[in-house]
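Input (Flagellar basal-body rod protein FlgG):
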Amino acid sequence: MLRGLYTAASGMYASQRKTEMLSNNMGNAQTPGYKADHAYSRAFPEMLLDRIDSSGMTRNQRVGSLHTGVYVQEIIPRFIQGDLRQTDRTTDLALSDRGMGNVLFSIEQDGQVKYTRNGRFTVDSSGYLTTESGYYVLDENSNRILLNSDQFQVDGEGRIIENGAQVARLRLAVSENPETLLKEGDGMYRTENGELLPLAANQTYEVSQGFIEGSNVDLTRSMTDMLTAYRAFEANQKVLQAYDKSLDKAVNEIGRLNG
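Output:
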């Protein structure tokens, strides 16, 4: 019976983690470049039960298998491109890459190179192109981009032009397996070993100025998944309550009769 308690409790915990993940997705539905997280659940290994006689010896009589619950094995972002929204701001940039979502801007954050799909940039007081959080946008040589003003042009290949002359080119990186990137705050990602991602030289992409990429959160599906997770939590909770009542009866009623 105690195994059943553990099984129900694991189901409740897995449902809770899914609910938290979905709440975070829905809260970031309007965040530019946000990639929705997806949870992947897995069952614990099954246990085989054998019958044991009064002497404590195991008989060759197989009772059957016992499920031991589920757990959320991993939560990873889904790299599919979101819709582009026109803003007409010269510092807003969006990436289009055949819907794959694996071409990313390179950002300098706390001395490390990070990556993002959020192209809502600005020019700081020193003239550097930065994210809204103040992190530097990098050029193809991994240097910070210094501009004279926010009145610049960016072509489809990421070249930044001021007064008719090219002053820099965005460092656009590509990840062949973006699911392996580690997710951080402010829409940032990093590689596990800190190595630089290669330039997206051989990729088909386009930079659109005056646009931002919206999140790829499907609110309708997220709400449906949220209700499913709630129902799964409640079902496991009722199982847990049923086990609790059975244990209460065994202790307070059966134990009294035996005494």
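Residues 74 and 257 are 48 Å apart (CA to CA).
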